[in-house]
Amino acid sequence: MTLHVDLSALHRCVEQMGARDVPFTLDISPSAIEPIDIELREGIEIPLDEIRNENGLLSYKGRQILLYIRDHGDDARKALEHGENGRRFHIADCDTLQEMRAKNRFGRYYVTNDLSGTFEIAGRDPDTGEKLSGRARLRVCKNCLRKLNYKGYAVTARRRWEIWADFSIPEFFSKYSSCFSYLPYHPDEDDAQYTADWDSISTHLKRERGFVCEQCGVRLEKYKFLLHVHHINGQKNDNKVSNLKLLCADCHRKQESHGHMFVSHEHMRLINRLRREQGIGSNGTWEDIAKLADPALEAVISLCKTWHMPTPTPAYVIRDRHGNDVCDVELAWPDRRIAVVIAHGDKAAAETHGWQAWKIIEVLDDPDSFIETFKQRKI
Q1: What is the pLDDT of residues 211-231, one digit of tens each?
Q2: For a FRET experiment, which of 18, 230, 237, 336 has its CA 20 to 30 Å from that of 330?
Q3: What is the pTM of this model?
Q4: 212 in Cβ contact with 246 (< 8 Å)
């Protein structure tokens, strides 16, 4: 059966109101909750060959995961009482996991993408033989932090203990959210802290301040879903005008204590494209580059700064000789035609047009080759 709907009267009303056409973007991202998302929150055992390595990070079916040992044997009670006594969980394909793989010991591992920081473990009491189970607050593997140079872990010896002790799973997942096809399922338990009139307050503020990010300056009147209202003091029920600041999704997640925010690669690129079109670029300092670049590049930026390399251009567009866009890259040194990318497709496209493109983990795994290539490709 075919339905015929006459909308002419509606269109006449729209014309009388003087409304105009505006660009419309439907915010559809692959973050819908699927059965696998629910299973991963609980922790599941999967075959080793189903675990993928995405820029050095552990991945399963497009989702970022943590790897851990559920069976703690005789150490279960100690781990349940004090998580630091338990076995470490893994966030990267580190030396420890590579050694375990060589010994074919992966059958003992479970994966999860639960952000709570607690892990379901089991074991037994060594004195009574009683079976034990429960949730333990395990600590992250230090070799994983070194592998990823997380927050400069590999190059700042004096801060290593602090980086390890303060490690936050939500912040870690947020930093690398653009590397994965699916964003973590994380119900916002803080929603109750907002006042009942929050929606109207935030909408009014965005309109009043012109839909502009008050940190990077990007205008988002056509992409309002990428503009957030940030509570400066962290109190979501404090809606004083002086406590509210408009921030794009990228600037918002980079605020202190906002590690629970996830931004997809698609949305990060859209923000950067708008920044370019609006003339918002880096002032050439490492600090400014870190503010504009995808946070997944933090480790590479840290190393480049340590090596005293010239500063790159963040969010660069490679174009062919006719001026057509080829691909977006996360960091670029145009004079050397060298780039660092997140997506494998961008690496292939860049190299097809004479660039040397490196994925994040390639730089971290072989920094000597990266530096040598950098020296040789001066154009």
Answers
A1: 999 999 999 999 999 999 999
A2: 230
A3: 0.83
A4: yes
